[in-house]
Amino acid sequence: MNSTMQTDPLKPGYDFNAHLVAGLTPIEKGGDLDFTIDRPNGMKGFIINLTVKGQGTVFHGDDVFEVQEGDLLLFPTGVPHYYHRSEQTEEWHHRWIYFRPRAYWNNRLKWEECINGVFITKGVQIDDQEKLNQLFLQIEALSKVEEPYVDELSLNLLEQILIRCKMNQPNLIKKRVDPRITEVVNYMAKHLNEDFSNEQLAELICLSPSRLGHLFRDEIGMTITQWRDDQRISRAKQLLVTSNYSINQISRLIGYSDPLYFSRVFKNKAGLSPKLYREKVM
Ligand code: FCB
């Protein structure tokens, strides 16, 4: 490891190459964290940010806005980061989580208010503010533990955060997923290891394959293949850490007849090969 590498994620120069990093940044006027976080090209992952004390200022010029206790920010990949303690307060404490989202989160990662690519949720109900704070704290605690499944647990808690944020959108219409899509999703979950085609799925619910494709995308926010691959890869991760099956066997068990294709999809979704994943978490 390079000895000049920054090991503190609160300081510039830290390499956020991991899947999930979480922390609290307690900025006090004049303190050593009292600088502007300025990443003009954004980051490779997403950041969700919760103000727990004081006030922060995001962006400058025409795009400038303030965040206060209970407000949340969501920075998608590549969106510029520019924020600091507000001149109007002595402190700005914010919790944050850096993550690579699961594919099926697409529509959870869009909020109604957006400035310069950053999503904003304000006016969160007091009860929910406390629940969100607890979820952030649990993820922060988990991000310090190295054990199999901590990533899964953290992503599960993070999903709860994203659902609560959705529930706090101002124009929320409590919309249920189309029952035909629920049927397709349930079918795929039960038959993940089988090689079903979109035509077969469409037949199940008496729609044409192209109508099913559109409806699926509208309701779930991704294609059928993305959804299926996402589920298969989560199952592969479990098998990699809990079984002694070879990678070829796992590939077959989760429905990929071609292990090379499996490794490619795995690497694409998990950021590393199945072999390295197994070595890293065992
Ligand atoms: C820290 C910042 C925090 C967040 C993480 C990724 O240095 O204080 O707001 O941006 O980096």
Q: How many structural domains?
A: 2
State the share of residues found in helices, binned by percent. Answer: 25-40%
Identify the CATH homologous superfamily of the largest domain: Regulatory protein AraC
The arrangement of helices and strands along the chain is EEEEEEEEEHHHHHHHHH
Distance between the terminal alpha carbons, to the nearest Å? 22 Å
Given this structure, which CATH class of the largest domain is correct?
A: Mainly Beta
Strand content: 15-25%
The CATH architecture classification of the largest domain is Sandwich
CATH fold naming of the largest domain: Jelly Rolls
Radius of gyration: 21 Å
Question: What class would the helix/strand composition place it in?
Answer: alpha+beta
Number of helices: 9
Structural overview:
By secondary structure, the chain is of the alpha+beta class. The chain folds into two domains: 148 residues, Regulatory protein AraC (Jelly Rolls); 103 residues, Orthogonal Bundle (Arc Repressor Mutant, subunit A), CATH 1.10.10. Strands 1, 2, 3, 4, 5, 6, 7, 8 and 9 form a nine-stranded antiparallel sheet that branches. A hairpin with a 6-residue loop joins strand 3 and strand 4. The relative contact order is 0.10. The model has no long low-confidence stretch (mean pLDDT 91). Beta-D-fucopyranose (FCB) binds next to strand 3 and strand 7. Keywords: Activator, DNA-binding, Transcription, Transcription regulation. It comes from Vibrio rumoiensis. InterPro entries: AraC-bd (IPR003313), Homeodomain-like_sf (IPR009057), HTH-like (IPR037923), HTH_AraC (IPR018060), HTH_AraC-typ_CS (IPR018062), Tscrpt_reg_AraC-type_HTH (IPR020449). This is Arabinose operon transcriptional regulator AraC.
